[in-house]
């Protein structure tokens, strides 16, 4: 039972039960006062903690905003730029969130702390003052009454009457005060119910508003997050592909460092110990210097450098070399020495010591100066290329994986030797002979182009071709490549025109041969363009070589049939802002963005009695569409697992080939892991490709078992159906009886007894 009501009539009786009820009301108000006091303390602590959290979040946001990733090379890919800008986006997100948190902290003070403090001070404080008056008047009333009752009856009547009047007046005042106090007690008991709860309700309303605003921020941020996940996955895939190339280069340099020295403007560079003569009797000392030499200007530079002192660099010394002579051991007690004489100090040789005899030999050769002679394209080369192109276009223009499937090394070399011999070249019939497979002809053609002393697009213009591929609008890239092609030597340009025209023809049959412009760029980028030296920076530029070849193929009519502008077009920088891809487009729209096809690119391994090695493909599998026109791209990363059994390639289902797509027109990330299990049912109605190809060196059998089966798949991203024929699902949903649909980029499957279409890049096969 709750508190007993205080009756006003009881104030006149002032019974023990009345007093007990008053004390119960007073105790309840005291408990309420303590509760509000504790609540105010906790509320202030909450505000302080919120401010501390906000300060920490802001500091974290500043740290994100102030950091910038450095990249290797002289340009970044779009994905790398978006990843770099992501830290700033994260910082802005936290900043916006903390602004809302500050509003919450202010609202806690205004809506919770101040109203409770006001109630405690004005209402509960007033009751305390009334209680003091009531207790004081009670003491006074009963003291006066006892004193009055002790008066002697023998007092004069006038004195007794005055005493009676005084007691009566004091009693009336006490009753009035008692009535007011009782009224106040009951008023506060009722008032506290809304005066306390209403501020708490306002506090929670502010809290819910903050969380709702956070939810809205997260929802707005979700689109950017999904696009960033695609950028991260693309960058990870490129890293995996680049890492193997870097490790291979590292191993090459480890095996033979001298053959892989960097080519630069120095004829020779490296560490030498230089003899510094001192006045007698101190003799001389040998100081390590980093030395460089330019043969053209005969300029020799020495920079003192000591590794053991933390990399301290001394003053640079430059002189013009007059001559260099070798020092024999009979003239010095040190090995590997030679003398240099400077033009400004004739007759005063400087003695140098190399690290070894081989090192001294290299320095001596460099200081003497020799130049290499480059070979040129000749008549027989044009004949070889024209014969191969004619045969490919006649016999194999629709072969799947054309130029990606490699021939047997021994057959390729035998064909090349026949074609490059003037006596036998005309006797080789590639168009009608069954002795030469199409893959052998295409491999011979690529091998010939790779074996030229200088790549077709020359070392000199290599860097200039790369520059427009790294930045600028599609139009500016085409104009720049157009201009540079016409700077090539005439024979190089003529050969390039013949080849590119052929590749454009190949790309027109991409629906049959699966060799899109982008795939051809992946194959011929390293063949037509090659840096003069193998470095990590050069490996990073492989992707841009592919883009240049794509531009050539897509615009060959303009590039080779028209003259370029007289001036070199300046590239327009690409915006570094993160992608803002629109939502997934409906498969029923007339101009929808292409969805990726599941194309396995397997390099077939072929048997040969003479040799079990085949030419190595230069690059990993490329995208389904051209990078140069900013169209959707695929980046494949795969390893061709499997065992050779007779003439068939038996795939191991335990090692998946993973492909990802980077579609500018698609907001959801597309990442599907495909198991390389041989497919068994070739009688299905889907139109997915029945043959798939992987990159990489191949040997052995030239056939694979090809078919299609129905399989299970798991959703890796959620999807909301846009049509009754499509399925809606959440992450982790398991689809039964999955097969390719007639609609490119879609699958058919069953979920919870309903069959419908599934976006192919939203699931992972089990």
Automatic annotation (TrEMBL):
Domain SH3 positions: 708-766
Single biological process term from Gene Ontology: signal transduction
Residue ranges constituting the Rho-GAP domain according to the UniProt record: 375-560
Gene3D superfamilies, alphabetized: Arfaptin homology (AH) domain/BAR domain (1.20.1270.60), Pleckstrin-homology domain (PH domain)/Phosphotyrosine-binding domain (PTB) (2.30.29.30), Rho GTPase activation protein (1.10.555.10), SH3 Domains (2.30.30.40)
The keyword Transmembrane helix is annotated on this UniProt entry: no
Ranges of Polar residues composition bias in the record: 620-639
Biased composition (Basic and acidic residues): 609-619
UniProt keyword terms in alphabetical order: Cell membrane, Cytoplasm, Endosome, GTPase activation, Membrane, SH3 domain
InterPro entries: AH/BAR_dom_sf, BAR_dom, GRAF_fam, PH-like_dom_sf, PH_domain, PH_GRAF, Rho_GTPase_activation_prot, RhoGAP_dom
GO molecular function: GTPase activator activity
Reported function: GTPase-activating protein that catalyzes the conversion of active GTP-bound Rho GTPases to their inactive GDP-bound form, thus suppressing various Rho GTPase-mediated cellular processes. Also converts Cdc42 to an inactive GDP-bound state. Essential for PTKB2 regulation of cytoskeletal organization via Rho family GTPases. Inhibits PAK2 proteolytic fragment PAK-2p34 kinase activity and changes its localization from the nucleus to the perinuclear region. Stabilizes PAK-2p34 thereby increasing stimulation of cell death.
Protein name (database record): Rho GTPase-activating protein 10
This protein's encoding gene: Arhgap10
């Amino acid at each position: 039972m709750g508190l007993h009501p205080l009756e006003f009539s009881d104030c006149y009786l002032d019974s023990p039960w009345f007093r007990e009820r008053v004390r119960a009301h007073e105790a309840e108000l005291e408990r309420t006062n303590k509760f509000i006091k504790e609540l105010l303390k906790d509320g202030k602590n909450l505000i302080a903690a919120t401010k501390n959290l906000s300060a920490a979040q802001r500091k974290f946001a500043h740290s994100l905003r102030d950091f910038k990733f450095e990249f290797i090379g002289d340009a970044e890919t779009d994905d790398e730029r978006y990843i770099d800008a992501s830290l700033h986006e994260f910082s802005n997100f936290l900043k916006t969130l903390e602004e809302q948190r500050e509003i919450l902290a202010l609202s806690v003070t205004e809506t919770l702390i101040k109203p409770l403090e006001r109630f405690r001070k004005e209402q509960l404080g007033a009751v305390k003052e009334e209680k003091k008056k009531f207790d004081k008047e009670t003491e006074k009333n009963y003291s006066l009454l006892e004193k009055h009752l002790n008066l002697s009856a023998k007092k004069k009547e006038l004195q007794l009457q005055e005493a009676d009047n005084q007691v009566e007046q004091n009693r009336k005042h006490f009753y009035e005060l008692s009535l007011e106090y009782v009224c106040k007690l009951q008023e506060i008991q009722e008032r506290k119910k809304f005066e306390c709860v209403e501020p708490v309700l306002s506090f929670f309303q502010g809290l819910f508003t903050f969380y709702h605003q956070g939810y809205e921020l997260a929802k707005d941020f979700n689109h950017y997050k999904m696009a960033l996940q695609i950028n991260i996955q693309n960058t990870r895939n490129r890293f995996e592909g680049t890492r193997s190339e870097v490790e291979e280069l590292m191993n090459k340099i480890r095996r033979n460092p001298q053959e892989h020295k960097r080519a630069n403007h120095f004829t020779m560079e490296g560490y030498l110990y230089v003899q510094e003569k001192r006045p007698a009797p101190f003799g001389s000392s040998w100081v390590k210097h980093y030395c460089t030499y330019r043969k053209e200007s005969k300029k020799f530079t020495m920079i003192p450098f000591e590794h053991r002192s933390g990399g301290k660099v001394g003053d640079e010394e430059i002189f013009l070399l007059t001559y260099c002579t070798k020092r024999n051991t009979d003239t010095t007690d040190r090995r590997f020495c030679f003398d240099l004489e400077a033009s400004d100090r004739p007759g005063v040789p400087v003695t140098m010591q190399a690290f070894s005899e081989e090192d001294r030999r290299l320095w001596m050769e460099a200081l003497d100066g020799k130049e290499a002679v480059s070979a040129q394209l000749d008549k027989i080369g044009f004949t070889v290329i024209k014969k191969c192109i004619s045969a490919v276009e006649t016999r194999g223009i629709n072969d799947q994986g054309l130029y990606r499937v490699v021939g047997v090394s021994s057959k390729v070399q035998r064909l090349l030797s026949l074609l490059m011999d003037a006596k036998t070249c005309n006797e080789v019939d590639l168009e009608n002979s069954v002795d030469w497979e199409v893959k052998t002809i295409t491999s011979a053609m690529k091998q010939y182009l790779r074996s030229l002393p200088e790549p077709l697009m020359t070392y000199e213009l290599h860097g200039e071709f790369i520059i427009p591929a790294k930045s600028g609008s599609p139009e500016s890239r085409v104009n720049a490549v157009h201009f540079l092609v016409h700077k090539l030597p005439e024979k190089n340009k003529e050969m390039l025109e013949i080849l590119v025209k052929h590749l454009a023809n190949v790309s027109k049959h991409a629906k049959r041969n699966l060799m899109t412009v982008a795939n051809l760029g992946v194959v011929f980028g390293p063949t037509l363009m090659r840096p003069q030296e193998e470095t990590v920076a050069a490996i990073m530029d492989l992707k841009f070589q592919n883009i240049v070849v794509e531009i050539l193929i897509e615009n060959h009519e303009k590039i080779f049939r028209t003259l370029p502008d007289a001036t070199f077009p300046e590239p327009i920088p690409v915006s570094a802002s993160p992608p803002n891809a629109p939502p997934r487009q409906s498969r029923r729209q007339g101009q929808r963005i292409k969805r990726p096809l599941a194309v396995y690119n397997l390099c077939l391994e072929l048997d040969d009695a003479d040799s079990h090695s085949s030419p190595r493909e230069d690059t990993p599998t490329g995208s389904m569409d051209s990078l140069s026109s900013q169209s959707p791209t695929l980046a494949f990363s795969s390893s061709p697992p499997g065992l050779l059994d007779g003439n068939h390639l038996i795939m191991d289902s335990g090692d998946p080939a993973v492909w990802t797509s980077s579609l500018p027109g698609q907001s959801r990330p597309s990442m599907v892991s495909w198991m390389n299990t041989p497919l068994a049912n070739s009688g299905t109605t889907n139109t997915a490709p029945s043959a798939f190809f992987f990159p990489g060196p191949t040997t052995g059998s030239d056939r694979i078992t090809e078919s299609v089966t129905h399989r299970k798949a798991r959703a890796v991203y959620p999807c909301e159906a846009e049509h009754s024929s499509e399925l809606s699902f959440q992450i982790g949903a398991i689809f039964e009886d999955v097969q390719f649909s007639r609609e490119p980029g879609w699958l058919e499957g069953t979920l919870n007894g309903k069959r419908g279409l599934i976006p192919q890049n939203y699931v992972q096969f089990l």
